[in-house]
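Summary for the steering committee. One of the milestones for this cycle was to obtain a three-dimensional model of the protein with coenzyme A bound, which we needed before selecting residues for the alanine scan. The sequence and ligand used are listed below.
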Amino acid sequence: MTAVGLAAAAADESPLDATIVLRDGGLVRIRAVTRADAPRLKAFHDRLSPVSRYMRFQRAIREVSLAQCERMSQADGIAEIGLIACAVEHEGARVIADARCVLVPGTREAELAIAVADDWQRRGLGDRLLVQLFRQARNRGVDLLFGEALSDNVAVRRLAERRGARLHMTRWGTTRVSIELRPLALEPLLVTEPRGSRFEAAR
Ligand SMILES: CC(C)(COP(=O)(O)OP(=O)(O)OC[C@H]1O[C@@H](n2cnc3c(N)ncnc32)[C@H](O)[C@@H]1OP(=O)(O)O)[C@@H](O)C(=O)NCCC(=O)NCCS
């Protein structure tokens, strides 16, 4: 163990609630969203730049309503898996990323969506969050994740391609992204020691 107690968790033992180290040393807690997170989710979406919000929701929206954030905070971990990332530098109270997938009833497929706060982008967080979402979705029997992205969304296309996604242009000018989960080799998350009390206040 190093000074911060780094430990690589075994692939299938990656904890559901983990504080991870980004490649630039930034510390981020990734955990399941809870009902108490609705106002934090609202603040997160309100802070997104108009471009990021547009890319995430694929239409121009000025704000995401609290009602929608309340719904997003109620992901049950079965029909919908919702993960958030919180910045350790804000004592875990600030949501800086959200990734989720919603199961298509009667199938082993789920629709994926992700957003990372603008000032946290290009630090490896989107990829870390995806890996954790892939692992949890696969553990729950999901075989395929898919999503539709605006075709000029280079960031999500590259992010997904790096993880083995197939991309298809649709006739509406969007790109359909699909990722087979079974064959994926998911490396362990680089996690710190189990959570300490400094995060408890944010729950
Ligand atoms: C797409 C998004 C989630 C990526 O998150 P991120 O934390 O910046 O991604 P990462 O830092 O993990 O990047 C992983 C890889 O994806 C690619 N990538 C990410 N952002 C990119 C960009 N703006 N341009 C080109 N490639 C990019 C790169 O290959 C990157 O690896 P590298 O930094 O080693 O080159 C983020 O840009 C975002 O929230 N966008 C707005 C919302 C959105 O578009 N959601 C997707 C539709 S639901």
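Key point for the committee: DSSP finds five helices and ten strands in the chain.
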